[in-house]
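Input structure tokens:
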């Protein structure tokens, strides 16, 4: 069964107040594009075309104004409301009807991934139809994250913000799970902070020896946008890549065209829409090369 995508773009963004008091964090600019373009691009690089976007009730209209039904990218978007942010595992119960038994790739709307080998890493995870896969990234301060210990590709231990980390590898906000995820998520009990933790869901897979890991090595970047400083750093990182290489990162327009999901005329229409920007000029240059 074809894997479907989920972008969790809810939450209140209180750590970025006051800039997120009137607009969703995932709609903030990351250099020249809205933040949600980047996680959307990751799912598209996985070959996923059916994607559910989970938002707060008050923000959904703004997301829809930006992305519509997804047809401009050759996608089919489904919109789901999250009335209250009750934990990451809740996304699977909210998306149960949308998934209809299909395996899924869920990405957090504020997680940014870069790396030349990213499509290959995603393809490797997609091959696994039974069980789940997490993506690990080496960090200098693992005690701030959910940490994974593993042997080869098999996860041995996952622990949330440990005082003594079992490894230096953090669990990123990208999860490939099988069609059992919604049923398992319904069994998750709220944590002491009252949330349905993704770690609890992953531990269920781990107990059944069904949890693998894909490691993001030196050639990858995983960026957090949880603070004002890290948001600025991520934007500057994208700007440096863009201006140094003359290539775009996180462009759904380019990916959909290169995948053959939209034709030259559709890309030309998008280039015309953005003609006053460097992004529009870039899309136009793709057709001229």
């Amino acid at each position: 069964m074809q894997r479907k995508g989920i972008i969790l773009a809810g939450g209140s963004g209180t750590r970025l107040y006051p800039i997120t008091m009137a607009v969703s964090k995932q709609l903030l600019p990351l250099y020249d594009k809205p933040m949600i373009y980047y996680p959307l691009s990751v799912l598209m690089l996985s070959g996923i075309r059916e994607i559910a976007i989970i938002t707060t009730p008050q923000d959904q209209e703004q997301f829809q104004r930006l992305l519509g039904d997804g047809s401009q990218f050759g996608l089919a978007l489904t919109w789901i409301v999250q009335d209250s942010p009750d934990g990451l595992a809740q996304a699977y119960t909210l998306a149960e009807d949308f998934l209809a038994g299909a395996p899924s790739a869920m990405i957090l709307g504020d997680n940014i991934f870069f790396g030349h080998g990213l499509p290959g890493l995603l393809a490797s995870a997609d091959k696994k139809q039974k069980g789940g896969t997490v993506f690990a990234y080496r960090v200098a301060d693992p005690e701030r994250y959910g940490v994974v210990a593993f042997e080869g590709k098999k996860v041995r231990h996952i622990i949330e913000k440990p005082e003594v980390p079992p490894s230096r590898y953090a669990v990123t906000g990208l999860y490939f799970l099988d069609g059992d995820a919604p049923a398992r998520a319904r069994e998750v009990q709220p944590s002491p902070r009252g949330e349905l933790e993704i770690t609890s869901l992953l531990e269920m897979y781990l107990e059944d020896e069904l949890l693998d890991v894909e490691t993001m090595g030196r050639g990858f970047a995983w960026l957090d946008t949880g603070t004002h400083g890290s948001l600025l750093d991520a934007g500057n990182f994208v700007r440096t890549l863009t201006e140094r290489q003359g290539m775009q990162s996180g462009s759904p327009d380019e990916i959909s065209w290169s995948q053959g999901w939209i034709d030259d005329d559709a890309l030309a229409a998008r280039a015309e829409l953005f003609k006053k920007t460097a992004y529009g000029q870039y899309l136009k240059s793709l057709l001229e090369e």
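The domain at 4-131+172-250 is CATH 3.90.550.10 (Spore Coat Polysaccharide Biosynthesis Protein SpsA; Chain A). The first strand starts at residue 4 and ends at 8.
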